[in-house]
Design a protein that fits this description.
107 residues; mainly alpha; 7 helices
Length: 107
């Protein structure tokens, strides 16, 4: 992604929040939170242009602001994913419990 257009990265995060939560929940379930972080970093190219060591010496205030906003938005997405996964687990547990002992045999 073009370093000249940091707002495009923020738009990518908006799009992820609107359309990709179910798929990312599956990545979370199958591969864990680190895999989700890597997917988000890859989708936004965060890992390419936002190096913490480089920020110390080279980053403009605008890049720091956008980088910080991206980091916060990624954490918000992770929270949403964890909450969604929790809700699914609660629903599955309630369904299993409501089925009585038969539900435990399938688990």
């Amino acid at each position: 992604m073009n370093e000249q257009n940091p707002l495009a990265r923020l738009k990518t995060l908006d799009d992820i929040e609107k359309t990709s939560i179910p798929g990312l929940v599956e990545v979370l379930r199958e591969e864990g939170v680190d895999a989700v972080k890597h997917v988000l970093w890859e989708m936004t190219s965060l890992h390419r242009d936002y190096s913490i060591p480089a920020w110390r010496n080279e980053a403009t205030e605008e890049r720091k602001r956008v980088g910080w906003e991206m980091a916060v938005r990624i954490e918000k997405i992770l929270y949403t994913l964890l909450h969604e996964a929790y809700e699914r687990q609660v629903e599955k547990t309630i369904t299993t419990l409501s089925e009585g002992p038969v539900g435990f045999d399938r688990g």
